[in-house]
Every structure is written in C-alpha cells, then in structure tokens.
Design a protein that fits this description.
The chain is α/β, with parallel strands linked by helices. It has a domain at 2-167 and 204-229 and 268-282: 3-Layer(aba) Sandwich (Rossmann fold), CATH 3.40.50.720. It is 41% helix and 18% strand. It is built from ten helices and 13 strands. Helix 5 (135-154) links the parallel strand 5 (106-112) and strand 6. Helix 4 packs parallel to helix 5 (135-154). It is globular, with a radius of gyration of 19 Å. Belongs to the NAD(P)-dependent epimerase/dehydratase family.
Length: 304
C-alpha cells in the first residue's frame, strides 16, 4: 500500500512510519514540524493554514492515517479552543481535501476511549453510551461524527479507532514518563487517585499491528473500532510493576484525589479487533521493562 501518515513526528505517528516501512509499505509523511533532515516523502504542513490540498493533489494514496492533533485532557480543559481546532476542525480539513482530490483513499482517524467517560459496565463495547468527561473527549467524538458525515454524504471510506491507553518507547508524557521522573528525583512520591483505578494498556508496536489489520479488513463504512488488549490493569499494579524495574526501593503513596477529566475504570471489548486476527505480542511486564530501558538511555543521552 501507499500510506500517508499525518502527524508523523508524534509518538504514535513515528512508530507507524517505522512499522509500515518494515512490513513493506510505501510511506509518505506530513507534520507541522520543520525537519531539514527529513526531506524524503515529507510534507511540511503550515500550522496557520492547514488545508492539505498540496498533500493530496500531487500524490495518490491507498490509505491516510491521521495521528495529528492534541492529546492532553488537562490541556483541553485549559485551552478548549486549541483542542477543538486540532482534534476536530483539522479532521474536517483533511477529509475535505480527500473528497476533492482522491475520494477513493481510505481514511483512518485516531479517536480515543475518552469518548466513553465512566462506562456503566465493563468491558466497554463500541455500542456503549458516549459520556466524555473533558473537552478532549467531546472533540474526539465530534471528529468521529465528521467521519460519519463524509461517509454518509460523500461516500468516503472512513474509520475511527477508539484507542485506549498506549505506551512504549518514545513517549515523553503521561503515567510512566511521570513515574520515572519522580522516581529518579529521590523524593517521596504522591500519586493521584487511590490506585484502584484501571486502564486497558496497549504497547505502541501492537497498536501499529492492529492499525494495519484494520486497514486490511475494515469495511470503512464509518466504522468505529476499539483498540486495546481487553485487559483491565489496576494502576497500583502497573505502578508497582514499573518501580520493580529500578535497582532501589521507591517510596510512594496515592493521594485519593481524582484528577478532573480522568475516568475511573476502563477495559475494552475487543471482539471486533480480534475478528481481524489481532492478538497482543508484548505483555505489560515486558513492555514496561523495555520502556524503563529506553527512558534511562534517553535521559543519559540528554545529560551528556
């Protein structure tokens, strides 16, 4: 396939570029980041006028994966307009360009489990009610509706992936990045919540495999598909697992305070994804050990 990855400089986008190249696809990239070293099949997007016409006018693709946008619940509460533009308006602009220049191109948009909020029951099926707890969750759901709009009225091939908690090498934010920085400080650590909160984690390499399976199998009829491992991991358990990677004991506790916008418990129903042939290849312990090794090497290189 000829694949265009928008947001290629981000955490997920970078891994998708590597993965799709490794398995033999031709990959084009697009992002707002100026990179004079990356000139091969790379489109620089003007952040002030991102109409995407140039990207789709001069090259034909079999598949476009949109990994761009904002990815912070706290920031969406502080800057909801910015989040709306990056996660919702941007999707409309991309689909407008696809509709104008190559309506046969398949489009995958990375949505989020944040659209579910606090579900009434676990595991969470794609048919579950959507009750976002943050502007980020609302805007991701609106982007799904835009994908439905362009499929219904213009017959575009669209698909939205409701991604649960992704982690892995290169992620410089969120839980495990924060845990590492707090652990090396040597100070006692106080964490949000009680530890009984749960998430459904998926390693970024397994995410890349899942996305390829969706690309090869989905009907692209404005489908919505959960992307996770279908395993509920308690936060207290993954914190302990990660801190076991260190060579010294770490003093930590949970504050009992829940951060605004954060759901309590998540576990994905992934029957649809499994029907495409998906099975996890990286378990939690292995993934956290690899992440600890990566972040340790990264921090060492930064300070040298």
């Amino acid at each position: 396939m000829k694949v265009l990855i928008i947001g290629s400089k981000g955490f997920i986008g970078h891994h998708l570029v590597q993965y799709f190249k490794e398995v033999g696809h031709s990959v084009w990239k697009a992002d707002v980041v100026v990179d004079y070293a990356d000139v091969d099949r790379y489109f620089l997007i003007d952040v002030s006028n991102s109409d995407y016409n140039t990207v789709f006018h001069y090259e034909k693709y079999d598949l476009c994966i949109n990994c761009s946008g904002a990815a912070s619940v706290p920031d969406s509460l502080k800057n909801p307009m910015r989040d709306y533009y990056l996660n919702t308006v941007n999707v409309f602009k991309i689909l407008t360009a696809i509709n104008q220049f190559q309506p046969e191109c398949k489009f995958i948009n990375l949505s989020s489990a944040a659209i579910y909020g606090n579900p009434e029951s676990l595991p969470i099926h794609e048919s579950a009610a959507t009750k976002p707890l943050s502007p980020y969750g609302f805007h991701k759901f609106q982007a799904e509706q835009i994908c439905q709009e362009f499929h219904s009225f213009f017959q575009l091939n669209t698909c939205s992936l409701r991604i649960f908690s992704v982690y892995g090498d290169g992620l410089k934010k969120q839980l495990f990045w924060d845990l590492y920085n707090k652990a090396v400080s040597g100070n006692p650590i106080e964490l949000f919540g009680t530890g009984e909160e749960s998430r459904d984690f998926i390693h970024v390499r397994d995410l890349a495999r899942a996305i390829e399976m969706v690309a090869n199998t989905s009907a692209f009829n404005a489908d919505v598909i959960n992307i996770g491992n279908g395993v509920e991991e308690k936060i207290k358990d993954v914190v302990a697992m990660f801190f076991d990677c260190f060579d010294h004991e770490i003093d930590y506790s949970f504050s009992g305070q829940v951060r605004k916008g954060d759901p309590i418990n998540w576990k994905a129903d992934i029957h649809q994804l499994k029907s495409y042939g998906y099975k996890a290849t990286i378990d939690m312990k292995e993934g956290l050990q690899a992440y600890h090794a990566w972040v340790t090497a990264f921090k060492k290189n930064v300070t040298e």
